[in-house]
Amino acid sequence: MSATFTGRAPGKLILLGEHSVVVGHRAIAAAVSRGTTVRLTDVEGPTRLGESSIQDDRLMTALRAVLPAEGLQVDIFTDLPVGRGMGSSAALAIALLRARAAREGRTPDFAELHHDGFLVERVFHGNPSGLDHCVVAMGGAVLYRRGEAPAPLQMPSYPVVVLDSGVAGDTGQLVAGVASRRPGVDPALMRLGELVELALRSLHDPHALGGIMCEAHARLGEIGVSTPDLDEMCALALQNGALGAKLSGAGGGGVVLALCPDGGEALVQAAARRKIAAFACRLPEA
Ligand code: MEV
User: Fold this and answer.
1) 4-152 — its CATH code?
2) Is 235 within 8 Å of 256 (Cβ atoms)?
3) Does position 127 have pLDDT exceeding 90, yes or no?
């Protein structure tokens, strides 16, 4: 029997601050319990991909960025929707690094996860802010600014519903698209940054937080990363009891995050009637 080693990491949802975090504003995000497990098995010959619930042309390049060129089979299992803004590549990166360290008989520290996680994230996203893999590595809720040490954030845990557009967004292209629309979109990016600061003063007020989320979605539309489907899903959420709803992640598809203080059952049912995949969870999860 060959030796096997596993690593696991959660996905994430961005409460506020996607895209504006790329240009230096703060963002709030939290880990979710769905996630990714990587299994490494010692084998003869070049490192190769075995079973994988992530299909992506860039996968081997990402594996080569952090694994030895020889001697491993890599199996990947995830229950995250892939490419939907829930941190599937970041979860892959951190799970991979945890499995690599387990094989070496050690636990990786945050500095290693941060540094090497970025090598994997760059393969998928070009010039990411680093938010996703920091949140995934830390767990819980996190306040993040590019270039600074991320800080754990104490906040109440709220019931939310995640609505999946069923369409993958390409984070690298979406971030590049926003960059190409600057300086025209700078006022909206500035406002997205301000909304994070407002939210930090309203963390215990779900009604205020919901209003801030709705405005954030409108600004994300102004910078060109929402879609008619995402706008409709936000409207559906608000019609079914949500206090606020916005796209979460890079947009262009991906998911909508709805703050639903009553648990969100009505929204999950309304989504099912429209054949929209939706699930309820808490943010941050306990
Ligand atoms: C993607 O999950 C979040 C973005 O802000 C990109 C990034 O932070 O690198 C859109």
Assistant:
1) 3.30.230.10
2) no
3) no
Q: Which pTM value belongs to this model?
A: 0.97
Candidate CATH numbers 3.20.20.120, 3.90.1150.10, 3.40.50.2000, 3.30.70.890; the one for domain 156-283: 3.30.70.890
Q: Is 171 in the pocket of ligand 1 (CB under 6 A)?
A: yes
Answer whether 21 contacts ligand 1 (Cβ < 6 A): yes
Which atom in ligand 1 lies closest to the alpha carbon of residue 19?
5
- Measured between alpha carbons, how far is 132 from 88 in angstroms, rounded to an integer? 9
CATH 3.30.230.10, the chain: domain bounds:
4-152
pLDDT band at 203 (very low <50, low <70, confident <90, very high): very high
How do beta strands 141-144 and 151-152 pair?
antiparallel
* Residue of 252, 237, 260 whose CA lies nearest to 166: 252
